[in-house]
Amino acid sequence: MHLTLKFLGEIEEAQIAPIGEQMALLGERYPPFEMQLTALGAFPNMRRPRVVWVGVETPPALAALQADLERGLKKLGIAPERRPFHPHITLGRVRDAGGGRVDWEAALARASEAALGGQRVEGFCLFRSQLQPTGAVYTRLRVVALRGSHES
């Protein structure tokens, strides 16, 4: 499961350390915070899902952290995202949407009725994603704890 603050795409190995430094600065500024999870959804749609996700009500701390990360990475020459930030937690990918054998729309609707509640955010990571025939392999390159004493 992950919530993407910023998709970087292909980056040079030499960029990893400066990106980590920007992340560490934010970790020192931001305290841990809570976010509320909302209903389940799927891309491209609920009938033929490829990616299953849970929505997130965007608390001010999450929006500010993401915006500050964008600004910090822009200083490193990484282009900011053009689309607005719409956070969601990717739960998984569906290899075979069932070919009509599974009523995904009904299954996801039933699952979304469950109380999703809150999630405490205590840090964030820089991941490398490598696509393999068996799926994506994620490697943590940098882990940053949120240690600030007040919101920026």
Written overview of the protein:
It is a single chain. By secondary structure, this protein is an alpha+beta fold. The chain has a single domain, classed as Cyclic phosphodiesterase (Cyclic Phosphodiesterase, Chain: A, Alpha-Beta Complex), CATH 3.90.1140. The protein contains three helices and seven strands, in the order E-H-E-E-H-E-H-E-E-E. It has helices at residues 16-29, 60-74, 104-112; strands at 2-3, 33-43, 51-57, 88-93, 118-121, 123-132, 135-145. A five-stranded antiparallel β-sheet has the order 1-4-3-2-5. A two-stranded antiparallel ribbon has the order 6-7. The radius of gyration is 17 Å and the shape is globular. The mean pLDDT is 87.
Average pLDDT value? 87
Shape: globular
Largest sheet: 5 strands, antiparallel
Catalogue the unreliable spans.
none
CATH fold category name: Cyclic Phosphodiesterase, Chain: A
Strand content: 25-35%
Structural class by helix and strand composition? alpha+beta
- What is the N-to-C order of secondary-structure elements (H for helix, E for strand)? EHEEHEHEEE
Alpha-carbon distance between the two ends: 27 Å
Domains (count): 1
Under the CATH scheme, the architecture is Alpha-Beta Complex
Topology overview:
Blueprint: E1 2-3, H1 16-29, E2 33-43, E3 51-57, H2 60-74, E4 88-93, H3 104-112, E5 118-121, E6 123-132, E7 135-145
Antiparallel strand pairs: 1-4, 2-3, 2-5, 3-4, 6-7
Helix pairs in contact: 1-2
Structure at a glance:
The chain is α+β, with helices and mostly antiparallel strands and 152 residues long. The chain has helices at 16-29, 60-74, 104-112; strands at residues 2-3, 33-43, 51-57, 88-93, 118-121, 123-132, 135-145.
